[in-house]
């Protein structure tokens, strides 16, 4: 048995103290998230030169926004010689929610991997995933040694890169690896107004144009 057995009064006292610590941690993380959103950003002057392979042909970094203001890009570990994708990346991908929630916040999400489109599509079909998943092979080869690139698409390790768009200008705002994948990572945050969750909807209640 993992825990001690105590009386109801002891349990309430211990629980109260623990919840106080949890709430303090929550407030500290919220402050850290605010600081993250206020970090400086880097303008990507050559956004059209970053090409990503898809079943519809090449897409530029600007195209990946799909007209939205923010972009979350997941670097997925799937390489040309791999029999299958990274277990950790696949576990993450299995938990990607209905993207209409993100899209309602003017945010696009997708995955990229340094593998051919055909390999990505085959693995995507096997896993039953519906989210956008593109090849970063050509872009990775062309920029992997450039010092002016602050993010590397399909960089050989899993992670998240976040971008902001102003018209046709694209800015790299944040990148991370390991743990740390949440909507707080984007520059505009949750975009909550008053009662936060009340601003979301059931996924079949969003308009088709979000």
Q: Could you characterize what this model shows?
A:
With 210 residues, the chain is of the alpha/beta class. It folds into two domains: 1-38; 42-186, Glutaredoxin. Helix content is 30%, strand content 20%. It contains six helices and eight strands. The chain has helices spanning 8-37, 61-64, 87-94, 100-103, 117-127, 137-143; strands at residues 42-44, 51-54, 57-60, 70-75, 107-113, 133-135, 159-166, 169-176. The chain has a six-stranded mixed β-sheet with strand order 1-8-7-4-5-6. Strands 2-3 form a two-stranded antiparallel ribbon. The longest helix has 30 residues, at 8-37. The chain is globular, with a radius of gyration of 20 Å. The termini are far apart. InterPro entries: DUF899_thioredox, Thioredoxin-like_sf. It comes from Piloderma croceum (strain F 1598). This is Thioredoxin domain-containing protein.
């Amino acid at each position: 048995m993992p825990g001690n057995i105590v009386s109801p009064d002891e349990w309430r006292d211990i629980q109260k103290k623990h919840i106080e610590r949890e709430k303090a941690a929550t407030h500290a993380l919220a402050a850290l998230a605010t600081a993250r959103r206020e970090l400086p950003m880097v303008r990507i002057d050559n956004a059209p030169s970053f090409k990503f392979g898809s079943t519809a042909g090449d897409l530029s970094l600007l195209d990946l926004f799909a007209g939205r203001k923010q972009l979350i890009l997941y670097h997925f570990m799937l390489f040309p010689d791999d029999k299958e994708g990274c277990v950790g990346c696949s576990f993450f991908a299995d938990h990607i929610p209905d993207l209409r929630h993100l899209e309602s916040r003017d945010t696009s999400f997708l995955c990229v991997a340094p593998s051919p489109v055909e390999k990505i599509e085959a693995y995507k079909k096997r896993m039953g995933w519906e989210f956008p998943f593109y090849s970063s092979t050509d872009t990775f080869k062309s920029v992997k040694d450039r010092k002016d690139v602050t993010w590397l698409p399909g960089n050989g390790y899993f992670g998240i890169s976040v971008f902001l768009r102003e018209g046709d200008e694209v800015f790299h705002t944040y990148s991370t690896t390991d743990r740390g994948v949440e909507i707080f990572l984007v520059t505009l945050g949750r975009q909550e107004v008053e009662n936060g969750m009340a601003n979301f909807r059931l996924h079949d209640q969003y308009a088709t144009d979000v």
